[in-house]
Write a structure and sequence with these properties.
The chain is mainly α. The mean pLDDT is 93. It has helices at residues 6-25, 28-34, 39-45, 49-72, 79-96, 104-111, 117-143, 153-174, 178-189. The longest helix is centred in the middle third of the chain and has 27 residues, at 117-143.
Length: 201
């Protein structure tokens, strides 16, 4: 079998460097060292750390997209339960990583977006695509009477993802699932609650 290219080695190793240290904390030297590659190989394959980060973001989002599909396309569950299932899947994954690693999408939004228009623009596209299946599932849940119709599905999807990102950031500080479980408990008891059935007169 052919050996992996240095480009792939840099991306594979650099993924975990940026995931752990963040965009600002991860230097090109760190990435090359983690890949056991010459420093010059980085500039041979990537025009800048900014371009490299966009590829790392796309890799992370591809993984996230698979998890979204795993949860939201599971028609054996009711729509509202699918939303909760997604959050539970992410919680399990974050726990398996010791609550040290969070979400690259959220991390880059904080760190990289103020410094890079290219990364900011890509993040905007990611959030738009990420929101769509959640909005569709929420609309399905509203139609089924599982979630109140006071807010539009798109607004609720934005709230869900933005608030979840905040809970993940707090999780990294506390190094526990408590912020994630707190968000799920409150969100599904309030914003995503099932409306009470109207009493018949």
């Amino acid at each position: 079998m052919p050996k992996p290219s240095l480009r792939e080695k840099l991306l594979n190793a650099g993924f975990w460097v940026m995931y752990g240290k963040g965009y600002l904390g991860a230097g090109i030297r760190d990435i090359a060292a983690a890949a056991d590659a010459p420093l010059g190989s980085f500039t041979n394959h990537f025009r800048s750390k900014e371009d490299f980060a966009v590829e790392i973001l796309d890799r992370f989002f591809a993984e996230t997209r698979e998890l979204v599909g795993q949860a939201l396309n599971d028609t054996s569950l009711a729509p509202r339960a699918r939303l909760r299932r997604y959050l539970d899947i992410i919680t399990e994954r974050l726990e398996s990583r010791g609550f040290v690693y969070g979400c690259i999408i959220g991390d880059f939004s904080l760190e990289a977006a103020p410094h890079s228009e290219k990364i900011r623009a890509r993040l905007s596209e990611v959030f738009t695509e990420w929101r769509a299946p959640f909005a569709a599932t929420i609309a399905e849940a509203q139609k089924a009477g599982e979630i109140d119709k006071a807010f539009a599905p798109e607004e609720l999807a934005e709230f869900l993802l933005s608030s979840w990102e905040g809970a993940i950031l707090r999780m990294k500080v506390e190094r526990s699932a408590a912020p994630l479980e707190r968000f799920k408990s409150i969100a599904f008891a309030t914003v995503f609650h099932t409306p009470p059935h109207k009493k018949k007169k």
